[in-house]
Design brief:
The structure is a single chain. By secondary structure, this protein is mostly beta strands. 4% of the residues lie in helices and 61% in strands. The chain has 2 domains: 2-102, Sandwich (Immunoglobulin-like); 124-794, TonB-dependent receptor, beta-barrel domain (Maltoporin, Chain A). The strands form 8 sheets. The chain has a 22-stranded antiparallel β-barrel. The N and C termini lie far apart (91 Å).
């Protein structure tokens, strides 16, 4: 017994001694922290609280710690956006290696969502699938979708430009992958425009806001169009051919790399042949774009977008004959032309971005972009005309006019943008800062000459002046800083069926070195989804918005000896607009199909306006802050599947605008009092191979006056714009589900009838003066009825 007790005491003593020795020993803990896919997690925390030790993983996710050995060592691994993990080491010695994987703390089980996502902000997401085969005169599918939305209007099927709630074309901001893009500056007519900078084949998402938009969108007063280019999930492509041009798209996808390419060619020579001005039209528009996205690891993404656009518009007019007036008072305008026009619009655009996903909840991006355009507009066109009263064959005017232009412009814009996004619980926080360098060189010379029997060009008795003459030699070299911070907060009440709230609030700041102006733009919107009806939502929004001047608004004019000189106004300020709007959305079922009805009322109080006139798509500004005004109205939209599986919509808008200029109250040049648009898609009974798309537009005419006159003398209104386009498509080959062993997915044949009803729409006027000095507005009609055949092969 004594021997056993002594043995136990000895063993216990040896154990205590060994433990004390072990406690006094140290060991090295090393290893690597990664996510569930094996990608390293940098800056992860490795903590041993009992010993007060902390280490951070490096860029490879590796770490190393010197620790004291104990009976058990508790090590905690954590990183923002991941679930923390704890490991317990029992009496560790020497070197200990741990390979630890952290799981996302917001990881969800896979779910299937049916139906359409409700709109929770001021930006509406537009679907593209059902509009790709819609009839189109421009080939710019994205803008043509925008033009059919509530509150949006256009008065020329040749143009991709659009007006939003009384604003000009220049008041609409456009973003591609978070970078603001620009359009050519000297374009003055729709047929010169060519292809839009947005390639519809490469687009994945379209977000559009007609007012009250978020702080992240730039300093424009009317709308924001947010385009996201796609990263394909597999190799895909398409080729399209039509009588108006051709396009090709190819997308390559691998585990870490996606690469999309788009090539478009457009020649609307066939379409322009329906205009009343006959001649040799030779337009040529070419555009190539590429989008390369590389993910070397889960936490890094590198993107590059490149665009080259080469647009040429060559025209040699021959003759024109236009009849206008009323049934009882018909006038005929006949012109024989001499001369030609030759325009070039060549632009380059590129972006390079690096994004680091610090965690599943935090992203940081650095985006560099560059835009360059070289434009020249040259024409010498002489017209000899006869203006005749048809009923009596009386010559009201016989004369000659000549139009001359030598306009050259170079513009370069470089920018560097830092963006951050962070999701913290119910908050989505976003911020960014942008630094821009803007350089523009302009050299313009224009004049218009008129002469006729019985009257001459304007004269003083001693000097003979042109009816219009312009000279401009300007250089702009300036810098701009922009920054924004915003938060989207989702919260709810504590009821059994809670009411949901989405609050977006933020502020935008900008400073421009040219005039030393700093602007602050606070913005907010609140969406409420009541618990008693999840299909109903209400939204209010408001904010202070600015139209930061760029090139066109700066050009102030001075008349000296009959010549107008355009110089840059260094004292100009940003135009200002206060937005206030209220909206409701109601989703419902009708005929067992989903529908949505939207209604929105708005009021915009505008000050420091720079007055402008509009001729076709050319906007000419006064160059000074001389006016104030307002725009108000209501927009209604019914969206849904009138036919199963096909989206359609009907919009209706009412609007009133006024501007106070030189003591007079006049409508804005873009005052469109009403507009109705319909986009309807249908299938032939019993088959999905035959598809029909119908576009209808009916919009009030815009105010106008004689050219080179004061804007406040606008006393006329153009006729309403009415147009119907219909397209028929037949799916010749159907393998969209990949069931057949073929590289082709779909082959579509299409036939469009553009301007189905053959309506003579007017988008501008040419003014003629008779022998008594009376002026006549001769309408410039748009395209007539035309057919367009096309084929699309998808693989």
């Amino acid at each position: 017994m004594l021997h056993d007790k002594i043995s136990k005491i000895i063993i216990l003593g040896l154990f205590l001694i060994t433990s004390c020795v072990a406690m006094g020993q140290s060991f090295t803990l090393q290893g690597k922290v990664s996510d569930k896919d094996g990608n390293p997690i940098e800056l992860a925390s490795i903590m041993v609280v009992s010993q007060g030790q902390l280490a951070m993983s490096n860029l490879k996710g590796e770490f190393s710690l010197q620790l004291q050995s104990e009976d058990s060592v508790k090590v905690r691994f954590s990183m923002l956006g991941y679930k923390s993990k704890t490991r317990i080491l029992v009496r560790p010695q020497g070197k200990q290696t741990l390979l630890v994987q952290l799981a996302d703390d917001n990881e969800l089980q896979e779910v299937v969502v049916e139906g359409k996502t409700p709109q929770h902000g001021t930006t509406e997401v537009l679907k593209l699938d059902n509009t790709k085969r819609a009839p189109s005169a421009t080939g710019n599918a994205i803008e043509e979708i925008i033009q059919t939305q509530a509150g949006v209007s256009t008065h020329s099927e040749l143009s991709s430009q659009y007006n939003v709630r009384g604003g000009t074309f220049d008041e609409n901001s456009v973003y591609i992958n978070n970078v603001e893009v620009y359009r050519p500056f000297l374009v003055r007519s729709g047929q010169q425009e060519g292809l839009s900078v947005i390639n519809p084949d490469m687009v994945e998402n379209v977000g559009f806001s007609t007012g009250g938009f978020e702080a992240k969108y730039g300093d424009k007063m009317s709308s924001a169009l947010d385009i996201t280019y796609k990263r394909p999930k597999r190799t895909e492509g398409s080729v399209s051919l039509s009588m108006l041009g051709a396009s090709g798209y190819f997308g390559l996808s691998s585990k870490k790399l996606t690469w999309t390419n788009g090539l478009r060619y457009k020649s609307n020579k066939y379409l322009l042949g329906s205009l009343e001005t006959k001649g040799e039209y030779n337009p040529s528009f070419l555009d190539y774009q590429t989008y390369l996205s590389w993910q070397p690891g889960k936490r890094w993404q590198i993107d590059f977008i490149g665009n080259i656009s080469d647009n040429h518009y060559n025209f040699e007019p021959e003759d024109r004959e236009t009849n206008f007036g009323t049934m009882e008072n018909v006038k005929a305008f006949k012109v024989y032309f001499d001369g030609k026009e030759k325009d070039v619009f060549r632009t380059y655009f590129g972006t390079f971005s690096i994004t680091n996903h610090l965690s599943p909840k935090t992203d940081v991006s650095l985006i560099a972009s560059a835009f360059s355009t070289k434009e020249q507009q040259r024409y010498d066109i002489q017209g000899q005309y006869w203006l005749t009263q048809t009923e009596t064959s009386e010559n009201l005017g016989v004369g000659t006019y000549m139009q001359h232009s030598r306009d050259y412009l170079k513009a370069n814009v470089q920018s560097l943008k830092l963006m951050m996004r962070h999701r913290a619980g119910k908050h989505n926080i976003e911020g960014g800062a942008t630094y821009k360098i803007e350089r523009i060189t302009e050299n313009s010379a224009e004049y218009e000459y008129r002469d006729s029997a019985g009257y001459n060009v304007p004269h003083t008795g001693k000097d003979l002046n042109m009816i219009y003459s312009l000279r401009a030699q300007n250089k702009l070299d300036t810098k701009r800083f922009e920054g924004y911070l915003q938060d989207t907060w989702n919260f709810q009440t504590n009821d059994s069926i809670p009411t949901l709230f989405t609050l977006n609030y933020g502020v935008r700041y900008a400073h421009w070195g040219f005039n030393g102006e700093s602007i602050v733009s606070p913005r907010a919107s609140l969406t409420i989804t009541p618990g008693w009806n999840r299909n109903l939502s209400f939204r209010v929004a408001g904010g202070l918005y600015y139209q930061a001047p760029f090139y066109k608004e700066l050009r102030d004019t001075t008349l000296i000896n009959g010549i107008t000189y355009a110089t840059l106004n260094e004292k100009i300020k940003s135009q200002r607009s206060i937005h206030a709007l209220a909206a409701m959305n109601y989703r419902f079922q009708m005929m067992n199909r989903p529908f949505k009805f939207s209604a929105e009322v708005y009021y915009k109080a505008m000050s420091r306006l720079v007055p402008y006139s509009v001729d076709n798509v050319k906007v000419t500004y006064y160059g000074d802050n001389e006016a104030s005004g307002h725009a108000m109205g209501i927009d209604l939209k019914l969206f849904g599947e009138f036919v199963p599986g096909a989206d359609s919509w009907l919009t209706f808008s009412l609007m009133n605008t006024r501007m106070k200029l030189n003591g007079k109250s006049i409508p804005l040049p873009t005052d469109q009092r009403f507009a109705v648009n319909l986009f309807f898609t249908d299938y032939f009974p019993g088959t999905t191979r035959w598809r029909m798309s119908l576009k209808l537009a009916y919009a009030d005419g815009l105010p106008f006056a004689a050219p080179h006159k004061e804007l406040e003398n606008n006393s006329f209104r153009a006729t309403a714009y009415r147009r119907a386009d219909i397209g028929m498509s037949y799916r010749l080959y159907d393998n969209h589900d990949g069931a057949k062993p073929s590289i082709f997915r779909n082959v579509w044949l299409g036939l469009d009838c553009l301007n189905l009803l053959g309506i003579n729409n007017v988008n501008s006027y040419y003014w003629i003066t008779d022998i008594s000095g009376q002026q006549y507005a001769v309408p410039n009609y748009l395209t007539g009825r035309q057919f367009n055949g096309k084929i699309t092969v998808e693989f």
